[in-house]
């Protein structure tokens, strides 16, 4: 029996983010993207979510290469965690490699990692796979799709993309190459589903530049622009229009400064000489000669824009009249934090312009009509929607059916599920370990469901600690019970309630003594139950109750 | 010196929700709306936010009446809390009074409250004020604006409104009356600012009916529709189109059942005989004869739609093919919970239709062009934007300036600030107590900033309790220290860390003994600091540390 091609996503299905896909044939594996995810609202205290890498770690000797489509965190962010246990050459375009390099330096992993720079059009052999880099448009420079040649056929893995006929740099997505691959025959298409719910086309990046023109022309005030740090083309457009209108540009916020450094070093940005100035030197310039580019488009508390608004930025304070341009849309879940910054900007008298009023942001992902073009060009035998929640995957499947694809040839998978492909068949067969691993501070994986459940409980109702010292000899109460609470009620104004709680605990201990209960854990249960019932009746609340008995 | 008119908002400025406005002249006061607010994301465990009513309580003998514009929670939700301390007649239209009645019954306040029903066009005298009810369009039936005649002039208080020339019931907003008032002369306009950032006009409620038509016509599957329970006209449209296509309608979810009960009793809904069926009787009907109207348009965990999706609803389980229509937009902050339900609906094979694809929801608030019409009709001397965050108030002020209003005649106030008006002047002068009071379970106001800060700390990092018994005589350690954690790390997998923590605590106690520290609070500080430093270095986390010393 001939070998089958296996495709396994370790992330990016039924979720947005942490994209990782494994292609496996015989003894060889390649990995496409190693992304990280962001915590949901109820994952209290979690900094970052990474994939469960145990399948890759177990098979580390079989990994022939790691291929990266582009430099966004949801495609490269988990690399430092994977590289702790797995060593394999990393292949990426120049911009992506530049960003990976920064990241690996930070984690002191650069020396032991083989990082190979490729260009669109190049082909890399990795075991039984041959991977071709194909230029695409996206909201970061130098993004690529992969055409992965395998013994059973060619797979096209789009990564994130859009079709932009007038991009700021790099030229339009290589539709010709996709068409050629389609004519030669493509076994499977794995395509981005992020914007599949939106009809029509995503607007060109150039349209944003036209909006900037209108806002810079004739403006006599300072202009402050915030956008995503990774969107180099956007920053290029801001700098170009600023230069055109005689403004100097200062950049503030660490990720923004890093992005400009990397992209100018690598030649992805052209900044006219003398335009960039240090943010400390703005004071000497007249208002209509100043443009500040800043982080904070998502309302992040510690970002430069937020600090300017709340007057905690060292160099820049918002002044009445400042024109603040928000060249980004709020990622779902961030609306309220963006709103808080915008309100504060208005309170300081700024003139805030956002994308509701003008085209100040365009997405980096293909909408329905663009996706249809890709389907029509590639004409794959099998279609596997990726990069999306269930709603996106199902809607993308519907789009593919509308394009004439056989329903049976569309595979909606899930993380960890194994898709087996032959030249004539595709089916789900079995699974490998996959899931979400939480990173909290330095800890990777030491916080899980139980800890998060406790955090949620503590968050909503606070806690009550009941401490008593009891005799190890005869079980008599020696000291306490003392009641300590945090996050429950104002203690000073609730002294009566605290005393009532103490009396309930005393009664519970007494009852245990009367019934000759000597097992500490039974006594603790009694205290917990009695207090819990008492409190719910009295306050309709359910704090975490922690009885502690010290045997003395 | 002549008396001045005072206008004081106790809520609804620099926030969305909890609208309360006080009009005061001489010894008389009236209150317009008594709304509640919803907690922000970081107000852990808070159920409801109400205004600080201390100013009204202090002046309870001067309150001549409470006037309600409409029955939404952000305009009536705090009534039960105010009526605990304040007794005054409540004036409202029939629909609003019906909803207030339900609420007061629940809080056992109905008997001692004087609730008077008025109709649009009527006028009520309350002390030195005369209040006229003016019909407006909004997303709930029977909404009104007030023209408040005072000794210094007429104030128009819009409440929430839109201009709908083709509403489902009740006729268009009474623009003629606004125009007449404008001609007679209006001193001040207090106008809704909710949608002031949106250009153009809000679509008519009727446009949603047309979308329903398209989705019901020819559909052979069950149809499940979710919307806001208070939107009676929306429900009327759903029921009408269902009846037209021969479907029976079942209603599920408590707030939806209540709303239908009140509005049919009061004659705000006309349901053809035999159309409504009990949700238990659906099983006997063919799929294309079923329409279910359900709560859950915001993805609320316990709502009927959420329970259907996650298979915990007693009578209805989502089946493959079900057409689920979400006739609502997600309120900012709810996108992720709505998304979770939608994903689960897709997973069960439902065909989900939302407002991105079709006009399935329209707002109840006026957009820019409607606001301009109101300004142009009323031509007030002074303008006070209300119902909005700073961004909305400022944008509404800009709109008023563009309509030709003097910048000095526009007052942007804040909660608690006193606006003083004479026939020729308006200015801010002084303030009264105002703020946010948190309701958690039965507790009103016993949770404040410190408790919330602790909850946030507990939520993000969990906690560590260190307990030790020490001799009251010589300060020697008798038992412990024991380490108990919750919401910090998996204890079973972190036994080594727990032992390290214990040793740090032992060392801290020992050091205190060596240095002859005998004060328990100093020893506790030492334990807390040492553990905190140790943990931050080792884990980059900062759990709440609670040292407890029992003196025995």
UniProtKB/TrEMBL annotation, chains A, B:
Single GO BP term: rRNA processing
SUPFAM superfamilies: Metallo-hydrolase/oxidoreductase
Domain Metallo-beta-lactamase: 17-212
Localization (cell): Cytoplasm
Cofactor(s), by name: Ca(2+); Zn(2+)
Alphabetized GO MF terms: 5'-3' RNA exonuclease activity; RNA binding; RNA endonuclease activity; zinc ion binding
Binding of Ca(2+), residues: 45, 47, 440
EC number: 3.1.-.-
Pfam families per record: Lactamase_B, RMMBL, RNase_J_b_CASP, RNase_J_C
Record keywords: Calcium, Cytoplasm, Endonuclease, Exonuclease, Hydrolase, Metal-binding, Nuclease, RNA-binding, rRNA processing, Zinc
Enzyme's top EC category: hydrolase
Positions annotated as active site in the UniProt record: 192 (proton donor), 365 (proton acceptor)
Family matches, as InterPro entries: Metallo-B-lactamas, RibonucZ/Hydroxyglut_hydro, RMMBL, RNase_J, RNase_J_2, RNase_J_b_CASP, RNase_J_bac, RNase_J_C
Subunit-structure text: Homodimer, may be a subunit of the RNA degradosome.
Family: Belongs to the metallo-beta-lactamase superfamily. RNA-metabolizing metallo-beta-lactamase-like family. Bacterial RNase J subfamily.
Function description: An RNase that has 5'-3' exonuclease and possibly endonuclease activity. Involved in maturation of rRNA and in some organisms also mRNA maturation and/or decay.
The protein, known as: Ribonuclease J
Source species: Lawsonibacter faecis
Lineage: Bacteria, Bacillati, Bacillota, Clostridia, Eubacteriales
Gene: rnj
């Amino acid at each position: 029996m001939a070998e089958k091609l296996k495709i396994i996503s370790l992330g990016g299905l039924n979720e947005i983010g942490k994209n990782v896909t494994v292609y496996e044939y015989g003894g060889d594996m390649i990995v496409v993207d190693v992304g990280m995810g962001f915590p949901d609202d109820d994952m209290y205290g979690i900094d970052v979510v990474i994939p469960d890498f145990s399948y890759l770690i177990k098979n580390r000797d079989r990994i022939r290469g790691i291929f990266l489509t582009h430099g966004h965190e949801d495609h490269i962010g988990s690399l430092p965690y994977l590289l702790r246990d797995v060593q394999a050459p990393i292949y990426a375009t120049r911009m992506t490699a530049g960003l990976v390099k920064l990241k690996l330096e930070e984690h002191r992993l650069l020396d032991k990692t083989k990082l190979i720079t490729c260009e669109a059009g190049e082909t890399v052999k990795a075991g039984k796979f041959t991977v071709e880099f194909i230029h695409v448009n996206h909201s970061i420079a130098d993004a690529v799709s992969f055409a992965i040649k395998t013994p059973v056929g060619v797979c096209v893995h789009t990564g994130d993309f859009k079709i932009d006929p007038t991009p700021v740099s790099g030229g339009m997505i290589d539709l010709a190459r996709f068409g050629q691959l389609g004519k030669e025959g493509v076994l499977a298409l794995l395509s981005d589903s992020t914007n599949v719910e939106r009809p029509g086309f995503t607007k060109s990046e150039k349209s944003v530049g036209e909006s900037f023109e209108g806002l810079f022309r004739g403006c006599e005030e300072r202009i402050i622009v915030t956008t995503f740090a990774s969107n180099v083309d956007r920053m290029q457009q801001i700098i170009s229009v600023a230069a055109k209108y005689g403004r100097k540009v200062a950049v503030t916020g660490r990720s923004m400064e890093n992005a400009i450094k990397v992209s100018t070093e690598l030649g992805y940005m052209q900044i006219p000489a003398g335009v960039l100035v240090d943010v400390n030197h703005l004071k000497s310039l007249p208002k209509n000669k100043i443009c500040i580019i800043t982080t904070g488009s998502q309302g992040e508390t510690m970002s430069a824009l937020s600090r300017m608004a709340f007057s905690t930025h060292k160099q820049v304070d918002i002044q009445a009249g400042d024109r603040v341009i928000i060249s980004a849309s709020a990622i779902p879940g961030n609306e309220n934090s963006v709103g808080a910054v915008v309100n504060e900007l208005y309170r300081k008298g700024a003139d805030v312009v956002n994308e509701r009023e003008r085209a100040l942001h365009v997405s980096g992902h293909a909408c329905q009509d663009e996706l249809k073009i890709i389907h029509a060009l590639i004409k794959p035998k099998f279609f596997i929607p990726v990069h999306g929640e269930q709603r996106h995957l199902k809607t993308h499947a519907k789009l593919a059916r509308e394009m004439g694809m056989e329903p049976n040839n569309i595979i909606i998978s899930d993380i960890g599920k194994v898709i087996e492909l032959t030249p004539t068949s595709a089916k789900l067969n079995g699974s490998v370990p996959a899931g979400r691993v939480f990173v909290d501070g330095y800890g990777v994986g030491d916080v899980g469901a139980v800890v998060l459940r406790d955090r949620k409980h503590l968050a909503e109702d606070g806690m009550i600690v009941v401490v008593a010292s009891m005799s190890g000899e005869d079980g008599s109460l020696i000291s306490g019970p003392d009641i300590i609470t945090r996050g429950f009620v104002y203690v000073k104004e609730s002294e009566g309630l605290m005393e009532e709680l103490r009396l309930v605990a005393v009664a519970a201990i007494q009852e245990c003594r009367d019934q000759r209960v000597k097992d500490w854990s039974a006594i603790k249960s009694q205290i917990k139950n009695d207090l819990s019932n008492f409190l719910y009746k009295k306050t309709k609340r359910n704090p975490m109750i922690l009885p502690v008995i010290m045997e003395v």
